Amino acid sequence: MAKKDKKVAVVAAAPPLAPTKATKSLLAEFSQSISTSYKMYQKDLSENQKLRLIDAFLAFLVALGVLQFIFCVLVGNFPFNAFLGGFCSTVGQFVLTVSLRLQTLDVKGEIFGSITPERALGDYILASLMLHFVLFHFIN
């Protein structure tokens, strides 16, 4: 039997895509928007003490949630309902605090209408008490 020559097709690999002008301008625009947003946030933070306090509490809640999750992964979740209650409490309190932050920053009443900051704080306290009451009974 005669051997037939096998033809192997060689496909040249495409060169890596170089960033185009549009990509570079998009990245520059994105970077500029991030830096502008950060500068405006820093300006708002320096002017408003309530915003600084709420944001610090939000950062604490995020850190607490991460710490609870890491503890659950490393040590175990034997009383799973206790972990679930604590983690849901942290997430629920975070959501309620973000709501309070949005309502207190709406000074002109454009978004929330006639809700005063005092009423927003009262709603926040009542909702927090209800959240923790429900989760306390969930844990048993």
TrEMBL record:
GO biological process: protein N-linked glycosylation
The keyword Nucleotide-binding belongs to this UniProt entry's keyword annotation: no
Annotated localization: Endoplasmic reticulum membrane
Record's keyword terms, sorted: Endoplasmic reticulum, Membrane, Transmembrane, Transmembrane helix
Record keyword Membrane present: yes
Taxonomy, superkingdom: Eukaryota
GO cellular component assignments: oligosaccharyltransferase complex
Subunit structure: Component of the oligosaccharyltransferase (OST) complex.
Family affiliation: Belongs to the DAD/OST2 family.
Record's protein name: Dolichyl-diphosphooligosaccharide--protein glycosyltransferase subunit OST2
Lineage, broadest ranks: Eukaryota, Fungi, Dikarya, Ascomycota, Saccharomycotina
